[in-house]
């Protein structure tokens, strides 16, 4: 009887244990976002760097603070304290002039000031920001089509004159007079804005050159028009226009609290214009055409889009937005009569607003509020803070916004997926 041998099958290896998928850690994701040169963080870091440079220049320009650095190695605390107090007080003065005055707050809490006085800094910020919303939208809309609308200043002046003429020359009830005057301002700005678009579409003339020339033409035309008997005030000898009728004046939003609060209905119209611009770009066929031409005009032409008409209509729409800003001035804070200085530099500042807002309507509104706050704060803080500090901060912000690679290099940020995002106008 022979022994039989049995062979056992080899045991199967144990199945691998599936490890549960680890969820990304929020702090790690957030930390990576903070160290990435994406559009949001570049904007935030640009603001911080601008205020840092502003602080350095404040220290350098102040004679007393500068003198403390002459014996820095003997008593460094003197220089550091003087620098800290100077920067703190300067930026606090900007805040109090733009948002909330702490002394007025204490007086209000003690019953020595009314609520209207408490709102005065914020009212001034909103007043200065209102025209910037319109001109920023005018520049931003053109940017989306690959155009550089540097003519917002002239379009604002034309809108200001169009609204003014309707405002004092017609005798209508307020429910009809005010809307017609506002529309007239928009149409006047659109007429001037369409000119660079037509020239670019028909002759290839660059919109930057033609719109710069139109800025000068509009400014000189305003000087001439204010000297005519039709526009010139009958009661004043200097170059001041006639006032608009009461039925064409934009009502104040906070005048019931205090008549000196200047913010008016134009702010609401500006917010509505921003919402409309967002809808136009995001939801409408015309907006799709604008974005397609701005992204690649050759591909858009291959798809059957009319490039020339898109340029013309986009520049006209941009001019209408800037013209509404002029109407806001003529029918609002300057309803008593416009001068050659009424437009200030709102059109040129609109370029910086559009750059900071990344040509996005929501971002443009936010940057307009920021620049309005800088303007109101700088004017209120005089003579303690140089008025040029507002212009300095704006210019530095734009420098960093326009050069994200510079911010990335200074702070050693990581390149975001898809590369750095910059705004460009085609055709240079």
Automatic annotation (TrEMBL):
GO terms for cellular component: plasma membrane. Residues 1-21 are annotated as: Disordered. Residues 1-10 have a biased composition (Low complexity). It is a multi-pass membrane protein. Pfam families: BPD_transp_2. The chain crosses the membrane at residues 37-60, 125-143, 150-170, 176-199, 211-231, 261-281, 315-338, 392-411. The keyword Membrane applies. It is found in: Cell membrane. CDD domains: TM_PBP1_transp_TpRbsC_like. One of its GO terms (molecular function) is transmembrane transporter activity. Its main location: membrane. Keywords: Cell membrane, Membrane, Transmembrane, Transmembrane helix. This is Nucleoside ABC transporter membrane protein. The keyword Transmembrane applies.
């Amino acid at each position: 009887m022979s022994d039989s041998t049995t062979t056992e099958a080899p045991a199967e290896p144990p199945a691998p244990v599936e490890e549960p998928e680890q969820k990304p850690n929020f702090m790690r994701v957030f930390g990576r976002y903070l160290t990435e040169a994406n559009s949001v963080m570049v904007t935030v870091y640009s603001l911080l760097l601008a205020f840092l440079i502003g602080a350095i220049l404040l220290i350098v320009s102040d004679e007393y603070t500068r003198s403390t650095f002459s014996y820095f190695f003997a008593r460094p605390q003197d220089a550091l304290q003087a620098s800290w107090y100077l920067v703190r007080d300067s930026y606090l003065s900007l805040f109090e002039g733009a948002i909330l005055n702490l002394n007025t707050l204490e007086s209000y809490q003690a019953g020595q000031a009314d609520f209207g006085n408490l709102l005065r800094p914020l009212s001034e910020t909103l007043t200065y920001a209102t025209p910037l919303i319109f001109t920023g939208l005018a520049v931003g809309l053109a940017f989306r089509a690959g155009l550089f609308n540097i003519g917002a200043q002239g379009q604002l002046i034309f809108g200001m004159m169009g609204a003014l003429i309707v405002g004092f020359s017609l005798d209508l009830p307020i429910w009809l007079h005010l809307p017609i005057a506002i529309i007239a301002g928009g149409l006047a700005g659109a007429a001037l804005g369409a000119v660079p678009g037509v020239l670019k579409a028909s002759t290839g003339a660059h919109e930057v050159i033609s719109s710069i020339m139109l800025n000068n033409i509009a400014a000189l035309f305003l000087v001439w028009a204010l000297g005519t008997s039709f526009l010139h005030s009958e009661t004043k000898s200097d170059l001041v226009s006639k006032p608009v009728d009461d039925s064409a004046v934009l009502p104040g939003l906070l005048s019931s609290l205090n008549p000196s609060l200047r913010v008016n209905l134009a702010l609401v119209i500006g917010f509505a214009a921003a919402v409309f611009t967002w809808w136009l770009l995001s939801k409408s066929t015309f907006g799709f055409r604008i974005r397609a031409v701005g992204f690649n005009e050759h591909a858009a032409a291959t798809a059957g889009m009319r490039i020339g008409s898109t340029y013309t209509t986009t520049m006209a729409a941009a001019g209408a937005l800037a013209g509404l800003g002029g109407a806001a001035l003529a029918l609002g804070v300057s309803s008593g009569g416009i001068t050659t200085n009424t437009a200030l530099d709102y059109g040129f500042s609109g370029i910086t607003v559009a750059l900071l807002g990344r040509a996005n309507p929501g971002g443009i509104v936010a940057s307009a509020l920021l620049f309005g706050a800088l303007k109101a704060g700088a004017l209120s803080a005089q003579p303690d803070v140089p008025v040029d500090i507002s212009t300095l901060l704006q210019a530095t912000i734009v420098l960093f916004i326009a050069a994200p690679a510079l911010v990335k290099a200074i702070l050693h940020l990581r390149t975001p997926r898809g590369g750095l995002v910059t705004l460009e106008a085609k055709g240079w």
